[in-house]
């Protein structure tokens, strides 16, 4: 019985994803993600001098979440932005920068409406404000992820001084500290799934898909990194554009993952949100 339900659900998922052209929508998302990436990085890096965070910490974070080739592609532009960043970026160009950075989130919200099969009736300004707020949330998560390893070590040192924890307990704390990044990624995806589609959902309804999307993101990133390192010679085919092509492919896969698990959430909860 369970096997038959699983097969029927898989067929329905495949059929609806084809009807909604989810692969094409993921390709469009990759385009928007690419053009939103550098405004987002410019805005994020421009804040670093005010928060006592070094650019190498941003690079370390990027290296944990992105394939090595993508890290190498973005490393030099990030360093250039950090070296040339000044107050003008935060004053004169902030509106344009934030608007541009939120385009990727705006496209993702529209794409989630497609996989949920709902129309968008929120106003242009409300939708843009939501995109900007979710983008700010993403930037905040970046800084929290950067700060937690440092402050986590300070907390461990403080606990050691005050309570004299055994060594094995401190080792557990150290491991938990490095689990923060994937947990925070899950929180971000949960926020996107919860606030993005133009329907009323509960956190419980979107949480399962968020966890699955976060795990899929990390596994596919690791697999893609291994493939690029050992088999994919994009530089020979595309020359100096190889890094950009790899970045686009990675964005495509990430967009597809978000839409796939968003669609799974939609099918799982369809009777509830259409009731």
Automatic annotation (TrEMBL):
GO terms for cellular component: plasma membrane. It is a multi-pass membrane protein. InterPro entries: Virul_fac_BrkB (IPR017039). It is found in: Cell membrane. The keyword rRNA processing does not apply. PANTHER family: INNER MEMBRANE PROTEIN YHJD (PTHR30213), UPF0761 MEMBRANE PROTEIN YIHY (PTHR30213:SF0). It comes from Polycladospora coralii. Pfam families: Virul_fac_BrkB (PF03631). Its main location: membrane. It comes from the Bacteria. This is YihY/virulence factor BrkB family protein. Keywords: Cell membrane, Membrane, Transmembrane, Transmembrane helix. The chain crosses the membrane at residues 21-42, 88-109, 129-152, 172-195, 207-228, 240-262.
């Amino acid at each position: 019985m369970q096997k038959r339900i699983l097969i029927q659900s898989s067929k329905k998922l495949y059929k609806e994803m084809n009807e909604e052209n989810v692969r094409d929508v993921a390709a469009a998302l990759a385009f928007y993600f690419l053009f939103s990436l550098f405004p987002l990085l410019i805005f994020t890096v421009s804040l670093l001098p005010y928060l006592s965070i070094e650019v190498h910490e941003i690079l370390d974070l990027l290296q944990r979440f992105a394939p090595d080739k993508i890290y190498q592609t973005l490393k030099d532009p990030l360093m250039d932005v950090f070296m040339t960043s000044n107050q003008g970026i935060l004053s004169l160009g902030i509106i344009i920068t934030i608007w541009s950075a939120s385009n990727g989130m705006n496209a993702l919200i529209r794409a989630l409406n497609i996989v949920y099969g709902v129309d968008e009736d929120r106003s242009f300004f409300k939708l843009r404000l939501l995109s900007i707020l979710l983008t700010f949330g993403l930037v905040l998560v970046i800084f929290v992820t950067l700060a937690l390893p440092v402050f986590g070590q300070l907390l461990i040192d403080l606990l050691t001084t005050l309570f004299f924890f055994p060594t094995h307990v401190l080792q557990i704390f150290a491991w938990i500290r490095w689990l923060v990044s994937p947990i925070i990624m899950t929180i971000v995806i949960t926020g996107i799934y919860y606030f993005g589609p133009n329907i009323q959902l509960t956190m419980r309804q979107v949480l399962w898909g968020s966890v699955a999307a976060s795990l899929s993101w990390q596994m596919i990133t690791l697999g893609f990194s291994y493939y690029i390192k050992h088999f994919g010679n994009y530089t020979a085919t595309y020359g100096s554009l190889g890094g950009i092509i790899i970045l686009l492919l990675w964005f495509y896969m990430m967009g597809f993952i978000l839409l796939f698990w968003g669609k799974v959430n939609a099918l799982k909860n369809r009777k509830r949100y259409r009731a």
